[in-house]
Write a structure and sequence with these properties.
The structure is a single chain. This protein is of the alpha+beta class. The chain has a single domain, classed as Immunoglobulin-like (Sandwich). Helices cover 19% and strands 41% of the residues. It is built from 3 helices and 8 strands. Strands 4-1-8-7 form a 4-stranded antiparallel β-sheet, covered by helices on one side. It has a 4-stranded antiparallel β-sheet with strand order 3-2-5-6. A hairpin with a 6-residue loop joins β5 and β6. InterPro entries: C2_dom (IPR000008), C2_domain_sf (IPR035892), C2_SRC2/BAP (IPR044750).
Length: 177
């Protein structure tokens, strides 16, 4: 198996628990497969418990680098709330999506690999807790490495992705101040 293109869309969250009854909380999420490359969604300022982000990012993974590491790859999503006045943010919880299932489905079609795409809802939990705090909706697509940067079905080419990543890194840094 050659290099694999993994496309992720952090679509939305549902049923998030509000920690403040006075303020309309703002919500954002941070997602990553490689902790060196994290992606931040835009901030949903609607104040309701069902924020919508539709943030997309892509990465290439190489199964030949380290088979054990490859099989343990996962998508990590952390959901944060932010107060609109003081801009204090706090981690609501996180969700982890093990990618092995997606890679296995992609590899099962080994003669002529066809893309595997699924949309799912994953429970958001605090670390070391079984109490669900809502759901995050994610789309994951696994396909062969792209030859053309603009051929992504999710609709972002590499230049857009880099600009998107830089912009949202700045937003995330601003939100942390």
């Amino acid at each position: 198996m050659g290099k694999i293109w993994v496309e992720v869309c952090l679509i939305s969250a549902r049923g998030l628990k509000r920690t403040s009854s006075f303020l309309k909380l703002q919500w954002f999420a941070v997602g990553w497969i490689d902790p060196e490359n994290k992606y931040c969604t835009k901030i949903d300022a609607s104040g309701n418990a069902n924020p919508v982000w539709k943030t997309k990012f892509s990465t290439i993974v190489d199964p030949s680098d380290d088979e054990t590491k490859f099989r343990d790859l996962a998508l990590h999503v952390e959901v944060y709330s932010r107060e609109p006045i003081f801009l204090r943010q706090s981690l609501l919880g996180s969700a982890t999506v093990v990618l092995k299932e997606f890679f296995d489905k992609y590899d099962a079609k080994s003669d002529v690999p066809k893309p595997v795409e699924e949309v799912g809802s994953f429970q958001i939990r605090k670390r070391n807790s079984n109490k669900p705090l809502g759901f995050v909706d994610v789309s994951i697509r696994v396909s062969e490495e792209r030859e053309e940067a603009g051929s992504s079905s999710i609709g972002m080419n590499i230049v857009e992705l880099q600009a998107h990543k830089i912009f949202h890194s700045l937003v995330f840094c601003f939100a942390r101040v």
